[in-house]
Specification:
There is one protein chain. The protein is built from 7 helices and 7 strands, in the order αααβββαβαβαβαβ. With 199 residues, it is of the alpha/beta class. Strands 4-3-5-6-7 form a 5-stranded mixed sheet. Helix 6 links the parallel strand 5 and strand 6. Helix 1 crosses helix 2. The radius of gyration is 20 Å and the shape is elongated. It starts with 5 loop residues before the first helix and ends with a strand.
C-alpha cells in the first residue's frame, strides 16, 4: 500500500484518473509538479482551468473552439460542398494532419452504442441534418471509427441523408478495423480518404 501525505495522494489520484495514466506515471507526474516552482504549477493549473472555461463547441460543426464559429468553418478557402463526419475532435486533428482534405467537418461527439446507453439523440446528428438543408453540401464522408459502433452510426446516418439527395461515402478500410482514427498514421488516413466509397 502506498503512503503519501493527503495533498500528494489527492494529486496522484487526480493524475491516475486520466485515461492511459497508471499509478506509477501518476506518481511521477505528481512529484514533477511538486518539484516545479510555484509559478510553473500555477501556469499548469491555470491552463487546465482556462481550457475548461474557454473551449466550447462550434455552433456550425460542433468541433471544439474558443469562438462561436471555429477557424475551419470560417475559412473561405475550405470546400463547403463536402462535410466529413467524425466521432470526436481528436479525429478532426488526425485528418487535418494528412493535409489531403480541404472540406468541412461535423463532429458527432460519440457513436451509437446501446450497450453504453448512447442513442442517436445523444449525438449531434440533428445539427448535421440541419446543415444539409440549404443544398450547398453534395457529399458527406462518414469517417467514424471502423468499430461496430462506428459502422452502425455511419449506416444510421447514411439512411437519414440519402433521401435528401446528398451523396454519402465511407472512408476506405485503410484504417484497421477495431482501431481509432486518433492512432492511425497520416499515410493510412490519406489512403482511407482517397479510397472512400459510396454507401
Amino acid at each position: 500500500m502506498e503512503y503519501f501525505v493527503p495533498p500528494l495522494e489527492t494529486l496522484v489520484d487526480s493524475f491516475a484518473s486520466l485515461p492511459g495514466i497508471g499509478r506509477k506515471t501518476a506518481r511521477r507526474l505528481a512529484f514533477h509538479v511538486l518539484n516545479s516552482s510555484t509559478e510553473e504549477a500555477q501556469r499548469f493549473a491555470d491552463a487546465i482551468v482556462n481550457a475548461k472555461k474557454l473551449v466550447k463547441y462550434c455552433k456550425i460543426c460542433q468541433n471544439i473552439t474558443d469562438t462561436d464559429v471555429c477557424a475551419l468553418c470560417s475559412n473561405e478557402k475550405r470546400n463547403k460542398s463536402v462535410i466529413c463526419v467524425t466521432e470526436s475532435p481528436k479525429d478532426v486533428i488526425s485528418i487535418e494532419n494528412t493535409h489531403e482534405y480541404n472540406g468541412l467537418y461535423h463532429v458527432l461527439h460519440g457513436a451509437i452504442s446501446p450497450m453504453d446507453d448512447i442513442g442517436p439523440k445523444d449525438l449531434k446528428i440533428v445539427e448535421l441534418l440541419e446543415r444539409l438543408k440549404d443544398g450547398t453540401v453534395n457529399e458527406v464522408i462518414m469517417a467514424t471509427n471502423p468499430t461496430i459502433e462506428g459502422e452502425a452510426t455511419a449506416m444510421y446516418i447514411a439512411k437519414l441523408i440519402k433521401p435528401l439527395g446528398v451523396k454519402v461515402t465511407r472512408i476506405a478500410n485503410g484504417v484497421p478495423v477495431g482501431g481509432d482514427l486518433e492512432y492511425a498514421d497520416q499515410v493510412t488516413l490519406t489512403k482511407a480518404i482517397e479510397g472512400r466509397q459510396e454507401m
